[in-house]
Input
Amino acid sequence: MKEFENDLICENLSVNSEGHLCFAGLDTGALAAKFGTPLYLMDEDRVRANCRAYQTAAKAAFGKNYRILYASKAASFKALYRIMREEGMGIDVVSQGEIFTAKAAGFPMEKAFFHSNNKTDADIAAAMDAGVGYFVSDNLEELAALEKEAQKRGVCQNVILRLTPGIDPHTYEAVATGKVDSKFGFAIETGLADDAVAFALQLPHIKLCGFHSHVGSQVFDSDVFLRAADVMLAFIAHAKQKYGFVASILNLGGGIGVPYVAQNPKPDLAKIISEIGARIDSRCKELAIAKPEICFEPGRSIVADAGLTLYTVGSVKTIPGYRTYVSVDGGMTDNIRYALYGSSYTILPALKMGEERGLTVDIAGRCCESGDMLQRKVPLPRSIARGDLLACLTTGAYHYSMASNYNRIPRPPVVMIRAGKAELAVRRETVEDLAALDI
Ligand code: LLP
Output
């Protein structure tokens, strides 16, 4: 078997006759030469295919009564919102920055759901100015602030309530959000969700439309979503019985995982969604409630495998008896996920794919911080040296959107590839950009 075969974990990866890694059909060596490194690449066709996979699965499971929202915290820039508009997707936005970007890209904001556990008065006003369709309300103070702003404008604002169903998805702590003691939402178990429904229903400028839950991220097991659906539908039945309130929307959040390394499972999206659909049908019958519109809010599974990052190797430093460090021209500023969560990645020698990988190295970033690592125990060819190109796979989600300017390092550009053509979607930041805000 060839050295690399196991590691081509995304369908948009291949190796050409020169032993170069190709992404979305293009030679990564040529892309690095044209756009420089570090470089974020994004496969537009893959993004669109992922949107369509969700829509096809949801249509089969729910007929017409569904909505797929792209959770744009995973990656937010204008080109992506244009794609979402063209693909007929809704979006989840969490800040004035995301709202501004989506609107500037011409996204129809009535299809936007505004999240966040702490929307300021200014956020609320800006979102209403932008014509955001739905607020996903997280707390009582926010409901009161929404009522006040909507009253001032003489409008009635669509709202859904974010509830915590009390489910532990066994994902890593930092991304688990559905547990009772989460900072997000109204807990069902403690009665807070009940209070929120009663409060929202008596606000004249709030139109309560339904409920939302998001149990966590990088979840592989459909069981987590089935349990969440059970709890949420039981709550919908309770709200109908107690308040006569008929929920028209049930948003089950995002969270479906993606493989980062060959050992990770590859979730079967169609199967997961069809199982959720079947469970919702049977529960609605049992509970004698009308089936609400079902929304999903995926971020990672829309963009992760559409991304790849290219780096150039600087130094190869062997500390005898300990380890070899290979340092690259990026690091925690463009990928904080290893430093933050210890996330696994597949990192490949982009232009030496045919070579045996006999050296085990730790890949370090360029920041002045020991924790600035991208991955440990990565197999690379013994010939690896300054100037070589490394490719880190599956970097489309939570990379560009979590990038920072630590050490005043400019953020890499994002290049979109569509039908074999590569174009800048976000230009490279310059040192002048970095100093532009300084007085
Ligand atoms: N909806 C809500 C309300 C969310 O909080 C999130 C993610 C999503 C949808 C999308 O979840 P996804 O399908 O992408 O798993 N920075 C972390 C992930 C944080 C996720 C936060 N919320 C990471 O890099 O793994």
The chain is about 30% helix and 25% strand.
